[in-house]
């Protein structure tokens, strides 16, 4: 299964009586109905760890690109109308500012490791607190209440899994708690953010900018307001899009399929 | 008015400091530069008028290092191209084969390991990158160990092993066209060149040919010669090139810090005190 295709529904499952396994690319499995698959006796696997560093790298790439207005800057640099570079054209600093990570799993933690090297202050919110060693290795401060993180962060990075609990986790209330100078970065799933609330918040300068590798749907309708906003950077879900990682994902998926077909334990089974 | 001018704060290389200007300002004591690069000034000429010069070396380093990393990541992951795809009116679905190259655990070769180069090494280390560096002088052992950087006495050795080559030198007669046809041919065909120093450090014509022929994979340039490039320049049209408008230090925080540094230099000069960041003609 690649990029959520084909769509796995009751009809498809009924038409494939000998289907033993669905190997999904990437770590997210929110697009699969696990109960339905289980009822047909079909096993499910994902590729959890191999995507982590690339996704963390992209999270940092988006944070830097947004803060320093890289895409806008590129457009100015190549525009036929540009005669000179204005002296008062400025972005915001990354080094020495505060990063709030919502979701401190494998990917969130790797983001923290990278951000620390930029002298960033790291706050995090997670279902569970990490242990002291893990926290001190990246200088991360636990915020039991998401509000505390939102109020203190210059950059808010979403790295959670999409579940019923994280659906629209960031809505009007959360955006209003953020600093008006803050940037929201989403590398998890489009549905973790209330997109309409985000549009409104950006239009009313409730927050400064957003950088999104994921939206709902993907791609967005061509007339969607997010596509036209100068302070929004959107990338086409390229979190794991490097040659090396895609290759590893394929190897992983093949391994899982072979295990399932020979009745052996599946390395990355999702239950 | 011209007799009253005792100090000039140079912002973005303006005003141009030439013989005519210096002659018209008899009481000029100091020229304070915004930023660290002094290649736009004729240091000897200024010194003959008894005018002191200062730059702002400290405020720039983190911000410029951040720009270097931003360009490295944007180029590797094809971020600008990706944005265009994401907002393009004709797009119906995301291509499954839109791929970039990995940054984590790749090899970064830093040419010029001054304050800015070193800050880049600190950041790159967090991405588990292998760090090679080439510099006029070798850094101390503990400085190398802190970032896991390996010294390449010969630039060739750095060029041959690096996946990303980051140029972070000052522009001097020795570094003019430091990266030319020969250097690019030594680089891996899968490598990316990132320039955050000065446009003239790279032989631009050679770069265009190298990119067109696939001699190197891509380039990301915060600096060019001139700035901006003429609107018909081939670099503006190449898909595998990211150009940014000399963003190096362009943040609110850093521009404020640079100005504070410059003011400190100016006040010291006007009060006859030692100038914190004085630059002498070599």
TrEMBL record, chain A:
MF terms (GO), sorted A to Z: glyoxylate reductase (NADPH) activity; hydroxypyruvate reductase [NAD(P)H] activity; NAD binding
Pfam families: 2-Hacid_dh, 2-Hacid_dh_C
PROSITE patterns: RWD (PS50908)
Keywords: Oxidoreductase
CDD domains: GDH
Protein name from the UniProt record: Glyoxylate reductase/hydroxypyruvate reductase
Native source species: Casuarius casuarius (Southern cassowary)
InterPro entries linked to this entry: D-isomer_2-hydroxyacid_DH, D-isomer_2_OHA_DH_cat_dom, D-isomer_DH_NAD-bd, NAD(P)-bd_dom_sf, RWD_dom
Assigned protein family: Belongs to the D-isomer specific 2-hydroxyacid dehydrogenase family.
GO CC terms: cytosol
Domain RWD: 133-271
UniProtKB/TrEMBL annotation, chain B:
Entry keywords, A to Z: Oxidoreductase
Keyword Oxidoreductase: yes
Domain D-isomer specific 2-hydroxyacid dehydrogenase NAD-binding intervals: 69-248
Family matches, as Pfam families: 2-Hacid_dh, 2-Hacid_dh_C
SUPFAM superfamilies membership: Formate/glycerate dehydrogenase catalytic domain-like, NAD(P)-binding Rossmann-fold domains
GO cellular component terms, semicolon-separated: cytosol
Stated name of the protein: Glyoxylate reductase/hydroxypyruvate reductase
Origin species: Casuarius casuarius (Southern cassowary)
């Amino acid at each position: 299964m690649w990029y959520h295709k084909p769509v796995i529904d009751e009809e498809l499952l009924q038409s494939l009586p000998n289907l033993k396994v669905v190997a999904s690319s990437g770590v997210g499995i929110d697009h699969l109905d696990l109960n339905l698959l289980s009822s047909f006796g079909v096993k499910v696997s994902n590729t959890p760890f191999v995507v982590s560093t690339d996704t963390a790298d992209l999270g940092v790439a988006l944070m830097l690109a947004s803060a320093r207005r890289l895409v806008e800057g590129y457009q100015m640099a190549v525009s036929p109308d540009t005669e000179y570079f204005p002296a008062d054209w400025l972005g915001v600093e990354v080094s020495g500012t505060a990063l709030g990570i919502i979701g401190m799993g494998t990917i969130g933690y790797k983001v923290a490791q990278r951000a620390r090297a930029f002298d960033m202050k790291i706050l995090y919110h997670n279902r569970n607190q990490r242990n002291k060693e893990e926290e001190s290795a990246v200088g991360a401060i636990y915020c039991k209440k998401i509000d505390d993180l939102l109020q203190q962060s210059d950059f808010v990075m979403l790295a959670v899994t999409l579940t019923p609990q994280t659906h629209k986790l960031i809505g009007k209330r959360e955006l209003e708690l953020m600093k008006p100078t803050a940037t929201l970065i989403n590398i998890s799933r489009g549905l973790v953010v209330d997109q309409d609330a985000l549009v409104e918040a950006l239009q009313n300068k409730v927050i400064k900018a957003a950088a999104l590798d994921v939206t709902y749907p993907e791609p967005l309708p061509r007339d969607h307001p997010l596509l036209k906003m100068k302070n929004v950077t959107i990338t086409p879900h390229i979190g794991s899009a490097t040659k090396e990682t895609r290759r590893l994902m394929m190897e992983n998926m093949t391994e899982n399929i072979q295990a399932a077909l020979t009745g052996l334990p599946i390395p990355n089974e999702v239950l | 008015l011209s007799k009253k001018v005792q100090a000039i704060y140079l912002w973005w290389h303006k005003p141009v400091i030439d013989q005519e200007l210096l002659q018209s300002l008899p009481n000029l004591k100091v020229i304070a530069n915004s930023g660290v690069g002094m290649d736009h000034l004729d240091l000897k000429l200024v010194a003959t008028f008894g005018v002191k010069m200062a730059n702002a070396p400290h405020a720039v380093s983190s911000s410029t290092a951040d720009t270097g990393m931003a360009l490295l990541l944007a180029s590797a992951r094809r971020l600008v191209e990706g944005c265009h795809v994401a907002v393009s009116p004709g797009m119906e679905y995301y291509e499954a084969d839109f791929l970039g190259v990995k940054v984590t655990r790749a090899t970064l070769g830093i040419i010029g390991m001054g304050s800015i180069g070193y800050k880049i090494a600190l950041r790159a280390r967090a991405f588990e990158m292998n760090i090679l560096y080439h510099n006029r002088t070798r850094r101390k052992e503990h400085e190398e160990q802190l970032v896991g950087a390996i010294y390449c006495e010969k630039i060739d050795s750095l060029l041959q092993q690096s996946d990303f080559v980051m140029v972070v030198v000052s522009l001097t007669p020795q570094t003019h066209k430091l990266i030319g046809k020969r250097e690019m041919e030594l680089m891996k065909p899968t490598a990316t060149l990132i320039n955050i120093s000065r446009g003239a450090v790279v032989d631009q014509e050679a770069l265009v040919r190298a990119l067109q022929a696939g001699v190197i994979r891509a380039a990301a340039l915060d600096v060019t010669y001139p700035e901006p490039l003429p609107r018909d320049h081939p670099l503006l049209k190449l898909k595998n090139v990211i150009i940014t408008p000399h963003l190096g230090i362009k943040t609110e925080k850093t521009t404020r810090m640079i100005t504070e540094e410059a003011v400190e230099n100016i006040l010291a000069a006007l009060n006859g005190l030692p100038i914190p960041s004085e630059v002498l003609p070599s």
